[in-house]
Amino acid sequence: MALDIFQEKGVPLDRQVFTWKDLVRRPYSKLDDDAFTRVCVIYMNGILSDALRTKHAMSRMNRELREQLAIIRRVEQFEQTLINWLNPPDQTPLETTLGFEQVAIEVTASVALREPDPYLAQTYRFGLLEDFDHLYRYGALYDRLEGKDPNNITQSYTDILVGRPTSVEHRYPVDDLRRPYDRRTAHPLTKIHAMSITAAENQTHDYYMTVGPFFSDPVARQLYAEIAAIEEQHTSMYESLLDPDETLLERCVLHEAMQVYNFYSCLAYEKNPRIKEIWQRFLDYELGQLHHVIQLFQKAEGRDAAEILPKTLPEPIGFKEHREFVRKTLNEEEDLTSIGTDYVRLAEVPRDHRSFVYRDQLNSDGSPSETVAAGYQWIPGTELAARAARMGSVYEGKKVH
Amino acid sequence: MKKTTSDIGMNRTGIATSPIDSADITQAALARQPSHLGDESLILKVRQQYALESEGVGSVPPPVSLKGVAKTAVDMLKGSKPTVFIDKLGERAAFERTGVRLYQGALGKLEALGSWEGGPTREGLERILNDELSHFGLVTEALTKLGADPTAVTPSADVVAVASMGIPAVVSDPRMNLRDTLSALLVAELTDNACWEMLIELARGVGHDTLADRFQLALDAEAQHLSMVRGWLSSGVTLEARAAPMPQAEATRPAPLV
Cβ contacts (< 8 Å) between A374 and chain B: which residues? Predict the structure, then answer.
């Protein structure tokens, strides 16, 4: 049943409390839990990280809101902690990276399919094909650095294929900017989508910037540097979809509603009761925060929150595979690029265009994403499984050493 | 490109680097009392609490073939637990597969840096690499014949991957030379030998004698790997120290501890 966000008041802010033991729980299982449990954890960590980031930016530029923002932000800090600490310690940074890319593919695909504004839907499909390629590059790195199978993480939900090659994704800064939705006319779901994907991509960027230096292999270090640069482009791209004329409190209300929607989506998907209970708790917390912010908004601006919020929440995000949609998009839109805010076919762009000059400069000492995946085709059990199979059966008389 | 490991330089990590400051901070550290009584056992208490609530890292997947399902059912009726053997085979498969990547890395360093007298040769490293690949193939084939999924990460495979996380990190670090890389490979080979021995014992214990015979050939090869890696490393260290080569040291054999 659709959630009525005006009727459901959630848990009041002053009852949203934690202990250290409560924050640091038993993580999900890398081996036994469904890949989409990991997807939800990584995604919601990104959503909460953006809640903090957005409110910090607002606090730095607004005197009146500081106290209220500090109070809400502290709860969100703990929500983010509890969620992020669900990632298990046997999941290496590279494995978590594969999870980040699966988020970027499957969540963005779900959003692209439901987005009511065709220009924003096009933007999600555009970004999706680039993140789709990142999974393939990191998959090759995982196989070739450690001899491990990236599909152990993605669990056969997501293709591991070349997308729009990372090496051609580098664009001049202004060619990553997009036209924003209009706050007065945009569908609420459009606003929720834009904020959600911006949050997810921004966290992906921050994660790669944090873990990149932990790698010892120079190609791995280069690859993280390269893909972090694309995530910075994507953050610029998606955040430019947001209408900069929204007031701070209007954005704050929408952001809380976006968080409510995303917890509601995770709750609808989750099968693991231990994790489901967390999504239910935080859905209730976020409803409490939403109503708190609605009061601030209505008092300060004299406007009814119903002007900017939907009465009931849209259908939850589809935490499921979207292979057919992704393959179709790849088939039809691989060769797109952007000039300013417009999408064009690569072949139509003059060779001396600023984005080509920019890209060629970056790649002029070699391309990490091409180096790592030279000749790489994913196969179950790693490319070494194929190589071992070519050696023939060791049972049938071939010596084992 | 630096081929040596143990040169004198500006290492600042020790207390003797700053005698005045170090005396001052030592005095300050002793003068201020801790905020809580006790010792490091408190950390263990919390760890114990979490351990009691934990359900482990994961499970062994169910068999994928009808034959595997039937075999598992029969074994369980007989009172044995066939998943232990599958789990340990999964561990060996993963370790051998990673081993191939490790020796590729060592070969890369050999190509860039060259070797030393008594050090690794291209042929020697390639031979070990091919052995690792064929051992991976052997275990994969064993898993398939037992009706298990050889692509699954079993709990023991996961544990061993965590335990040996630093080995690929050393091999792929360009600041760490071929000798450093051999130190990491020595850790891998020591573990590998002991684990093959235990796998053979387990195979015989659960009645897989034909497999155990195959695994014995792999263990024989692994014993050679260990001896080769240890020899290469030892000669590299001895050479850099300009020490006279000495007979191999061995532990004296005391009475077993009870």
Answer: none
